[in-house]
Design a protein that fits this description.
Number of domains: 2
Distance between the termini: 64 Å
Structural class: alpha/beta
Radius of gyration: 27 Å
CATH superfamily of the largest domain: Cupredoxins -  blue copper proteins
Number of strands: 11
Number of helices: 7
CATH architecture of the largest domain: Sandwich
Helix content: 25-40%
CATH class of the largest domain: Mainly Beta
Oligomer: single chain
Length: 293
């Protein structure tokens, strides 16, 4: 009887341990970071990135099949038509059927690949239903974020200096890695179409967040446009992807996606109210668009 009681007690403690472990994981903020031994792309955080990964996978299988076919054909030709097996070489100079086939088949394959490629290209370009517009201005070597619709003052985002980063706790260092942590992340509501207008005040830069499938150049005197809609709340990182001077490597991008309620609280904390409708209402009226494959 005592042994059975002890067994149930140990089982209960083990269950409580698992529950606390999973509860802690559930409450922890998601942070998009590469990990040791990673072989695949970032987990898609937006509809655009999900479509990019899908197209990449399809192309990979097609290219792999073509490569294996060409390799098998080369091996077959080398073995079958080697000199020892063919002391008298053939005098054939052309074959109409084969020439038509190796012209038509590649064209059909390329057209088949072009259709989803162009559809995705236009889907990536811009959104017609933006719930929020953000202006990103690049400088040497930091970013400035503005929310024109919300009348929020410009927010400068710089990399956290080395001496300040060393003062972080171990948890902060894990979630806000060296060379990626910023003093002011870009805050956006999740599940909302966000239009991003990008420009520069000096040299060319590039605003890129891998998990979003976004990479758009920032050019002085010109405004480029892109968009994203974050499907999962969390913290996402990127970097300037255009060589822009001596501190190019120290120009990280941090985007924090929060719930619509949290975003409204953040807007209120900035001391400004939305000029038109709150982000919650605007986002609800403009659901995330998905491309038709």
């Amino acid at each position: 009887m005592m042994g059975r009681t002890r067994t149930w007690a140990l089982a209960g403690l083990f269950g409580l341990g698992l529950a606390s472990l999973f509860a802690g994981g559930a409450w922890a903020e998601f942070v998009d970071l590469p990990h040791r031994g990673q072989m695949n792309l970032h987990e898609p955080a937006t509809p655009v990135m999900a479509e990019l990964v899908w197209l990449h996978t399809v192309l990979l299988w097609i290219i792999g099949a073509i490569t294996l076919f060409v390799l098998a054909l080369m091996i077959y030709v080398i073995v079958k038509f080697r000199e020892s097996a063919n002391p008298t070489p053939t005098t054939t100079t052309h074959n109409t059927l084969i020439e038509v086939a190796w012209t038509v088949i590649p064209v059909v394959i390329l057209v088949g690949l072009a259709i989803p490629s162009f559809r995705l290209l236009y889907f990536m370009d811009r959104t017609k239903e933006a719930g929020l517009t953000i202006k990103v201005t690049a400088h040497q070597w930091y970013w400035t974020y503005e929310y024109p619709d919300l009348k929020i003052e410009a927010i400068d985002s710089r990399m956290v200096p080395e001496e300040d980063w060393k003062k972080f706790s171990e948890t902060e260092k894990r979630d806000r890695p060296r060379l990626l942590a910023t003093d002011s992340p870009l805050v956006v509501p999740a599940n909302t179409n966000v239009r991003v207008l990008i420009t520069s005040t000096d040299v060319m830069h590039s605003w890129a967040v891998p998990a979003f499938g976004v990479k758009q150049d920032a050019v002085i005197g010109r405004t480029n446009e892109t968009w994203f809609s974050v499907l999962k709340e969390g913290l996402y990182y990127g970097q300037c992807s255009q060589i822009c001077g001596k501190d190019h490597a120290y120009m990280p991008i941090a985007v924090k996606a929060v719930s619509k309620a949290e975003f409204d609280k953040w807007v209120a904390s900035q001391g400004k109210s939305a000029a038109a409708a709150p982000a919650t209402d605007v986002a609800a009226a403009n659901p995330v668009a998905n491309p038709a494959r």
